[in-house]
Write a structure and sequence with these properties.
The chain is an all-alpha fold. It is 81% helix and 0% strand.
Length: 526
């Protein structure tokens, strides 16, 4: 974080960082950071910032699965947000309150909250928020029983149509799951199966989409496709959700009974009962019984915000910020030490690598010189009039083999040369920051062209003479033959990609080749 000069900076930083983590779906497991913002903005009475701070504190508690504390903060944030006239944030707050009421089985309260969300979403013309509010109302109607199925179908269908147009796949998957559940309960197996498959296909992580597996397995059950049903329902059992284990075990017990395996059916029913006991114990530890107390507590805390003394808050904030700064400073110092050590080791390793590359490059250059001498001798011997046709063919084959070896050595030498390393640095710099401090000199370009000409057995020299290539065209040909991606050539030649394509196409046209032809193909035809 660095050293922040004032409480204002510390509080604002804490709020922004918590907000950024929430918006990027990073699960937050500690509320110490957002507390700084809450304490400060409560102390100065800035309503708009108070509303934000309490809202994101609620989001942190929600991530920590402390639902009672989360709904308390959302209930505090709601009237503050109304006062600040932040409609979009108010819609998000209500959406979170509705979610917590839903998972705690306060369906009537959740339904009324989602109706508020629906109204706000319509006012803001927020399709995603509107569809979510509508789908949640549909799911609540579905839970009420068969007589509410038409209402649930209408709301879920409207929500699905909205997100389908908007292309929100995450929300579309959730609504598809609800529609599959609805049609499964309505005994419309084909529709249930369609939406179950759609739900699974829209999930990003299909390896751990345990609820989607259960929905799909249940849909297959309704369609009497029991093997597929067993496969997907068993996959859903990997989930740690006891409620899902209860439903999955009961559905598998039904299938076992249908298939005549009474023993397995009874065993699965016993497993379901055990999961129900675990679920009961788990829910006892959740906050169902605390919700009413929390609602009253939120009202009390709203009153306290107007009377809370500022002096203690400032003192507490100063101590807390000091501790945080010291901790961060120590952390940065340790990080600096570690980073410095790593840099030193990297530097030593790089120096060793450079030495090895230089030695290898020198060795390759020596090999190339030796091969040139051998090629020269073979050419001289081949030009002699004192050899017969059979000897001439043998020498020619040896010469071709020697030229190929020299070409291979030349290519390897280039890949281990300082020039190739410099080219890679230029490309990386341009990809990272759109510019590079490195430049290829005229001498280096000449060495590069000579090396490529050697690799291609002087074919580039012939090509240049035949078509009167400009310097840029010559460099373009050599870089293409060296295997650089065309998208990287603009960094080495300092020309736009459009200009490079235009030059390449013009050159190919001059050579009488097709536009999609490669220079390597042209040289191989020579």
């Amino acid at each position: 974080m660095g050293k922040l000069a004032t409480q204002v900076d510390s509080a604002y930083y804490a709020l922004l960082l918590t907000q950024a983590r929430d918006k990027n779906y990073i699960v937050q497991t500690d509320d110490s950071l957002i507390r700084i913002a809450v304490c400060y903005y409560d102390s100065i009475g800035d309503t708009r910032m108070q509303a934000k701070a309490h809202y994101y504190w609620g989001c942190v508690y929600r991530d920590m699965n402390q639902q009672a504390e989360a709904i308390r903060e959302f209930l505090i944030a709601a009237p503050l947000t109304k006062k600040a006239k932040e409609k979009r944030q108010l819609g998000l707050i209500y959406n979170n309150i509705g979610y917590i009421y839903t998972i705690q089985d306060f369906n009537e309260k959740a339904d009324s909250i989602y109706r508020l969300v629906e109204g706000i979403a319509e006012e803001l013309k927020d399709t995603a928020l509107w569809a979510e509010a509508l789908s949640k109302q549909g799911s609540i109607a579905l839970a009420k029983g068969e007589e509410y199925f038409p209402i649930a179908e209408q709301k879920l269908s409207d929500a699905f149509a909205a997100v389908d147009r908007a292309g929100n796949n995450g929300l579309k998957a959730n609504i598809s799951a609800s529609l599959s559940n609805l049609y499964s309960r309505m005994d419309e197996g084909e529709k249930a199966l369609y939406y179950a498959k759609l739900n699974l296909s829209l999930r990003r992580d299909t390896a751990r989409a345990y609820y989607a597996f259960f929905i799909l397995g249940d849909a297959y059950y309704k369609c009497e496709q029991y093997d597929s049903a067993i496969f997907y329902i068993n996959k859903s059992l990997v989930s740690g959700d006891y409620g899902r284990k209860v439903d999955a075990s009961m559905r598998l017990a039904d299938i076992a009974m249908i298939q005549g395996n009474v023993a397995l059916s009874l065993e699965l029913e016993r497993s379901s009962s055990a999961y129900k006991d675990s679920l009961y114990q788990f829910r006892r530890s959740v906050v169902v019984n605390k919700m009413i107390e929390v609602e009253a507590d939120a009202q009390k805390m709203l009153q306290k915000l107007y009377y809370k003394g500022r002096l203690n808050t400032y003192l507490y904030g100063f101590i807390l910020i000091t501790v945080i700064i010291v901790a961060i400073a120590l952390s940065l110092y340790r990080r600096y030490q570690r980073k410095n050590g790593l840099l030193q080791r990297d530097k030593q390793q790089l120096e060793k690598t450079n030495r090895d590359l230089s030695q290898h490059y020198a060795s390759l250059q020596t090999d190339i010189v030796q091969k040139d001498l051998e090629i020269k001798g073979l050419k001289k011997e081949l030009a002699s009039h004192q050899i017969d046709e059979e000897q001439r063919k043998k020498i020619q084959a040896e010469l071709d083999k020697m030229i190929l070896k020299r070409s291979t050595l030349a290519k390897e030498a280039f890949l281990h040369s300082p020039l190739y390393e410099k080219m890679q640095v230029i490309i990386k710099d341009c990809l990272d920051k759109d510019e590079s401090d490195e430049e290829i000199s005229d001498r280096e370009w000449q060495e590069f062209v000579i090396g490529m000409d050697m690799q291609w057995n002087n074919a580039i020299t012939d090509l240049c003479a035949k078509y009167q290539l400009s310097k840029e065209e010559l460099h373009l040909v050599c870089l293409s033959l060296a295997g650089f991606p065309f998208s990287h050539l603009e960094y080495l030649l300092h020309l736009s990609r459009r200009t490079l394509y235009r030059k390449k196409n013009a050159l190919l046209k001059r050579m009488g080749a097709e536009q999609n032809c490669e220079f390597e193909e042209i040289l191989q035809r020579k």
